[in-house]
Design a protein that fits this description.
single chain; alpha/beta; 8-stranded parallel β-sheet
C-alpha cells in the first residue's frame, strides 16, 4: 500500500502570528502515522520559523519552488540546497501558477526536479491541463508532455523519490468542478504513463490530487484507487479543514485503499 501524502500549499499567504496559530492547532491534532504523511509548504520567508515550530512534530516542511541552479548571480532565486539546509523535506516544482505566470516550461521544470533530488529533497511535480486543453480533448497529450519531459531528463528511476500532483487547472478558482471520475481518469493515465517505462516504479508512485480538495470531498476522492492524497491550497490555511482532510486520508488508508 502506498503511504498517502497530504501537503498544504500556503501559496502567498500567512503572517508570523497566523502561521504560529495554525501550526499550533495542526500539531495538537496531527500525530505520527504509518499510513499518512503530512507536510506544509509556506512562503519562503517563513520557512525557518515554520521548521523551528514543527521540530519534533510529525509534519514535514516543503518549499513552494526552487531554482534549477546551485548557486550564483540569480537574484531572488532560492537553491534547493538552501531549502534542504534549513530543514525542508519537499519542494513543489512546476506548479500551474508558475508555469503560467513565470512562463516555466517543462524543460525548466525538469531541471528543477533534478536540482531538488540532487539536494536530497523530494520534488512534488505538478502537472495538469488548462480549460482550452480539456475542451479540445488534449488533456492526456498535455499531461504526457509534462511528465515525459521529466522522465526523459531525470530517468524513470528518479520517480521512486518523487511525488506527482495532478492539477486540473481549469477547475481551480473558476467555478467549474472536476468530477471524481475525471480526476480518477487522469490519475490512472499518469500511473500508466510511468508504468510504460517501469511498472514497479509506477506501482509505488504517489499521485496527489490538487483540484480544490476540501474536507467534505476528500473521502470520495481519496477512496479512488490511483489517488494517494492531495496537494491542498486554500483549505490548508484553515486548521479544521486541513485536519479533516488528513483524517479522511487516514480513514481511507485504514480501509485498505491500494
Amino acid at each position: 500500500m502506498r503511504k498517502a501524502l497530504v501537503a498544504g500549499n500556503w501559496k502567498m499567504n500567512g503572517s508570523l502570528g497566523a502561521n504560529r496559530e495554525l501550526l499550533s492547532a495542526l500539531s495538537g491534532a496531527i500525530h505520527g502515522s504509518d499510513a499518512v504523511a503530512v507536510a506544509v509548504c509556506p512562503p519562503a520567508v517563513y520557512l525557518p520559523d515554520v521548521v523551528a515550530q514543527l521540530q519534533g512534530k510529525p509534519i514535514a516542511v516543503g518549499g513552494q519552488d526552487c531554482s534549477d541552479e546551485k548557486a550564483g548571480a540569480f537574484t531572488g532565486e532560492i537553491a534547493a540546497d538552501m531549502l534542504k539546509e534549513i530543514g525542508c523535506e519537499y519542494v513543489i516544482v512546476g506548479h500551474s501558477e508558475r508555469r503560467a505566470r513565470q512562463q516555466e516550461d517543462s524543460v525548466w521544470v525538469a531541471r528543477k526536479f533534478i536540482a531538488a533530488q540532487l539536494a536530497g529533497l523530494v520534488p512534488i511535480l505538478c502537472v495538469g491541463e488548462q480549460l482550452a486543453d480539456r475542451e479540445a480533448g488534449r488533456t492526456e497529450a498535455v499531461v504526457a508532455a509534462q511528465l515525459d519531459a521529466v522522465l526523459d531528463a531525470a530517468g524513470v528511476a528518479s520517480f521512486d523519490r518523487a511525488v506527482v500532483a495532478y492539477e486540473p487547472v481549469w477547475a481551480i478558482g473558476t467555478g467549474l468542478t472536476a468530477s471524481p471520475e475525471q480526476a480518477a481518469e487522469v490519475h490512472a493515465f499518469i500511473r500508466a504513463r510511468v508504468a510504460g517505462r517501469a511498472a514497479k516504479v509506477a506501482d509505488g508512485l504517489r499521485i496527489l490530487y490538487g483540484g480544490s480538495v476540501k474536507a467534505d470531498n476528500a473521502p470520495g476522492l481519496f477512496a479512488l484507487p490511483d489517488i494517494d492524497g492531495g496537494l491542498i491550497g486554500g483549505a490548508s490555511l484553515d486548521a479544521d479543514s486541513f485536519i479533516g482532510i488528513v483524517n479522511a486520508a487516514a480513514a481511507v488508508q485504514a480501509q485498505g485503499n491500494p
